[in-house]
# Entry
Amino acid sequence: MTDDAARGTDDASGGSDDVTADATAHRDVVVVGGGPAGSAVAVFTARYGLDTTVFDRGNGALPRCAYLENYPGFPGGIDVDVFRDLLAAHLKDAGAALVPDHVVSVERPAEDGPFVVETQDDRRVAADAIVAAAWYDGSHLDGLDDDEMFEAHEHHGEVEERFDPEYADADGRTPIDGLYVASPAGSRSAQAIVAAGNGAHVARSLLADRRRDRGYTGGLVPEYDWVRRDAEFSGEWADRDRWREWYENETDDDADVSPERHEELREAYVDEAFETRVTDEEAERRAEAGLERFVEVVGHDRVLDAVDDDAIHEYVDDTASSEGSDAGATSDDSNDDPARVDDDATCEDDDRTEASD
# Structure
């Protein structure tokens, strides 16, 4: 749902993975950490159209979990490795790039310039925004030279510096423009589902700031990533003028944008609203595709192994029976086809003509 007029230079070209050594690539967003928090951040930013790269070496807290039992949506729990595979697949499908590398430093050479990220494998990436989403100490942020980030922490009798989970506010914003923190975030990093929710919340803060910079004000600043049923666009809401009226009501009266920019943003917003319209048929298609993608990631063998053998045999028998019935109906229909009868009669007439000759 990208709109260049509404989002400036933002586009939907996310997912680039050409982050190589000895070169400085540029990204809209770099996320440090690909666990539940970082993955949630990247899904939201990539789906918005921001070119997003996630660095994750797999050293987070989640692999230490033997089995994930309290993540909503998996009533029987889920294997941690399978869950991580699903996170990675979601990143890819959303358009983000997942790079198996460890970030060692983040700096900002120029006060108003981009951040520069360096990794263990000698990659260099420039980014407009950084989202810290790794559970470890945050030492990779030392290069930003803000002593307020760290606090003394005693661990087994030794005093060490650790990232202060209170450095960012409740929305993940920090005193450094463009730097956001989804993790470490104290109690908001304590469980996988909590961390994921916090990551999504921080991503929405980042997107709100981008939208505010584009000229949106008031109730138009927050980004809502969802699609609407066709029925939502009935009655007065089927009319673009009703959406224009809503836009005007949500805009701050003292918005500091030119009349031309205001109209441009308004029309882009209305266009976006109608792009979220999904028919019942399309919703059904997406549901089937989503289930197929889930099975693909989890693995067909795993899924089949989990299904009772009797259920599989019954399904195969029912499918074969149904296909046989369809084939029989098709054959009967062809015999009733007037065109087919006429063709046969013509052939018989031709045969009799040839015999008489």
Notes: Residues 1-14, 338-357 have pLDDT under 50 and may be disordered. The chain has three domains: 4-214, 222-306, 310-357. The longest helix spans residues 309-335. Residues 4 and 10 are 6 Å apart (CA to CA).
